[in-house]
Each structure stands twice: as C-alpha cells, then as structure tokens.
Amino acid sequence: MQFLFFIAYLLFGATAIFAGYLLLFAVAGLFRHKAPYLPGKHTRLRRMVVFLPSYREDSVILESAARALEQSYPATHYDVVVIADSLQPATLEKLRKLPIRVVEVVFEKSTKAKALNVALSQQAEGTYEVAVILDADNILAPDFLDRLNQSFDQGWLVVQGHRTAKNTNTSTAILDAISEEINNHILRKGHRVLGLSSALIGSGMAFEYGLFRSLMAQIHAVSGFDKELEMRLLKQRIQIEYLDDAICYDEKVQNPAVFEKQRTRWIAAQFKYLRLNFVSGWQELFRGNVDYFDKVFQALFPPRVMLLGGIVAGAFLLWIFLPGYSLTWFVTAQMVALFLAFFLATPPDMRSKLGWRELSLLPNLFIRIVRSLFKLDEAHKKFIHTPHGIEEDTTKK
User: Fold this and answer.
1) Is 184 within 8 Å of 162 (Cβ atoms)?
2) Nearest partner of 63 among 138, 127, 133, judged by Cα
3) What are the transmembrane regions (predicted)?
4) Has this prediction a pTM greater than 0.90?
5) DSSP 8-state class, residue 324
6) Where does residue 294 rank: exposed (0-12), middle (13-18), buried (19+ CB within 10 A)?
7) 204: alpha, beta or left, given left = phi > 0 and alpha = psi -120 to 50?
8) What is the pLDDT of residue 383?
9) Is residue 128 helix, strand or coil?
10) Around 169, how many Cα atoms within 13 Å sit in the side-chain half-sphere?
11) Torsion, Cα of 115, 120, 123, 126 (10° steps)
12) What is the pLDDT, as a whole number, of residue 262?
C-alpha cells in the first residue's frame, strides 16, 4: 500500500508541476501589453516574401493566395509564392492567373520543410529581407504585414503572429479553436510578459530572411519543422516576439478523425525534439539560457486533454475510495488550478461557444489522443496530411 501511495504522489507530483506552470503563465498573460502600432509609420519598408506551401490543398489555396494580395502593406514591397505540391492542373491554372509566383515541387515523400527549402533555393540572395510563412488555409488580416514590419523596426528577428480560428462550425472546431487561444495566452502572451520567448506555431510567423534560409538548410524534418526551428533559435539565444494584434485566420479541424491525425503528427514531433534536446536543455540552463530550457521543459507536457482527463479522473476516484486524504486534496487542488488556468486563458467570446455538446465530446477526444500514442512510429516515417474543408462532424469515425 505504501508503494502505491509513493507511485501516486510521484505521478501527481509531476501533474502538479504542469498545472502550476500553466496557471502561472495564464495569470501572466492577463497583463500583456499590446505592441505599439502606427498605421503606415515605418522606419523603412522591408522587402517581404509570403510563402504558402500547399500539399493537396486545392479546396483552400485559391482563396488564401488571393487574400494574401489584399494587404495594406505596399504591393511593391512583397511577393506571394505558392509552393504547389500535388495540386490539380485546374488549380494551378487558376493560380497562375493571379499576380503571384507558383513554384511546383514533386517529392517521393512530401514535407513542408522540403517544399520551403526548394522555394528558398530559387530566390536570389538579397532579394528579400523578411520571410513570412503561412499554411495553405491561412487568411491574413489586411494589416498583418504592416504590423510585422514595425516589429522588425524594433529589432526583432523572429515574430509570431496571432493565429486564430476562422471557423467554429462544429463542436470539434470549437474545441480546437479554444485550444489554440489557450496556447496563445499561455505560451505566447504569458511568456512574453515574463520575459521569455513566444512559442512558434508553424504558420503566421515571420523571420529575418537570411536567418530563416540558413536555419532551414539544416532542417529536414518529416513533421514539426517549427519545433526544430524553435529549438535552434533559442539555443542560439534568439528571442521570439509575439504580436497579439497581427491576426492570421486558420481553419480549425472539423471532426474527431482529422483531430486525431493532426495530434498524432504534433505529439510525434514533440517527443522527437524532447529526445534530441533533453540533455542540451539542462546544459544550457546552467549556462543561463532559460528560454531554451523552458522550451525543452514544455516538451515534457502531456497533451492538455490527457492532462485534464487524468487529473479529473484521479480526483473523482480518490474522493470515492480515499475521501479526506491529503492525496485527495492535493489532486483536487490541481484540478481547480487547471480549470482556472484554462478559464483565464480562454477569451470570453470563445467561452460563450462552449456548451454541453462540446464538453460531451472531450472523452471521445481523450480516447483519440491515447490512441494516437500508438501511431507515432507512422508519423516519424511520413508526413500525415490533415485535409481542410471537411464540414461534417463525424464523431463516430
């Protein structure tokens, strides 16, 4: 019995650290000040390139490419480049009618990193000063590039914009949108308040062009190239800024089956970069590189659905079998801290969308996350594509 208590305290000691971490940065995120922005006021106008890698995204790429041209930033100072991987001939024909560049790529095994590296290799050195990376479904707010340029005026080399949901048409999409905003609040706003780097998210992000090109030349990731970018940047002590008002609209997954595929890819990347950076993360901590260690520490976290489900289930069982025990109160306090962190990190307009239908979907997503842990080997070998534009909420798939 003593051994079981020891294991329980060890397990819930770890979850207590995770819950406390999330609550700390959730509270910090409440104090994030907006970055100064003066429309049209720039130290100088930088030449930018907006990359739109598109793998079999015929349903969304045309709108994304067209909308990327609708920036308030001078059209003479930025180009849109669609990296077309396995698009239909009809889609390519329509893209070529737009005032953009189309770079066709063909790979035996497609990855976003490969596509970006091909496009980067075709740009003459010195042509651009800033590289902006989007996903094929992303829609930029009209002032996105303006805000980025002013952030580069302030000396930043890497900037993450505010990626937010462009759809909340199903229960899965609502939960995915809430998850995105929790990440924005805790891993971006909260971190910047306490002087740490914002997390990257894979799109809606911008880099000093030469830095990005040199880093990408070293990256051959099957998935999670943004995680590798983060690790390399922070190991070099290059901080990442977050612009809460630079909006990039992103399509949220619309059914649990696609949610499972997406999370399988994300978890595989998380474990991979934890393994590759765990030792060096501790070494860098003792050299004063807290930012890099913090990123490695984040990779220890289980998916939030699993963390929440495990703590709630633990508290429920402990109150049934061990009511009043110190362990029971310990786990209950963690549950309260976690609920509070998620509440503070969720914008009011998103809270209003959360109903019983969405809450009842959480056990389904918990099971799918657990199931995804047994598919990580597949994700390490090939890129798992998550399609866009699927409207039905197929909870039984």
Assistant:
1) yes
2) 138
3) 6-31, 305-322, 328-347
4) yes
5) T
6) buried
7) left
8) 66
9) coil
10) 13
11) 160
12) 85
Residues in the chain: 397
Integer Cα distance of 361 and 171 in angstroms: 8
Predicted local confidence at residue 143, as pLDDT: 96
Question: What is the Cα–Cα distance from 174 to 178, expressed in whole angstroms?
Answer: 6
HEC string of 182-221 equals: HHHHHHHHHHHHCCCCCCCCCCCEEEEHHHHHHHHCCCCC
- Cα separation, 271 vs 293, whole angstroms: 15
In this prediction, residue 260 carries a pLDDT of 87
Place of tokens 């067209």: 66
Instruction: Tell me which residue of 248, 270, 225, 227 sits closest to 161, measured CA to CA.
Output: 248
Name the DSSP letter for residue 253: P
Residues of the chain with pLDDT under 70: 1, 379-385, 389-397
Helix (H) or strand (E) holding 21: helix 2-28
Best CA proximity match to 270, nearest among 249, 297, 292, 310: 297
In the chain, the N- to C-terminal Cα span, in Å, equals 41
What are all long-range contacts of 329-333, with beta carbons under 8 Å and residues at least 24 apart?
Answer: 330/9, 330/12, 330/16, 331/12, 331/15
Q: In what order do the strands lie in the sheet with 158-165?
A: 101-105, 78-85, 48-55, 130-133, 205-208, 158-165, 241-250, 139-140
Please name which of 241, 214, 243, 244 lies closest in space to residue 229, comparing C-alpha atoms.
214
Alpha carbon distance 192, 199 (integer Å): 10
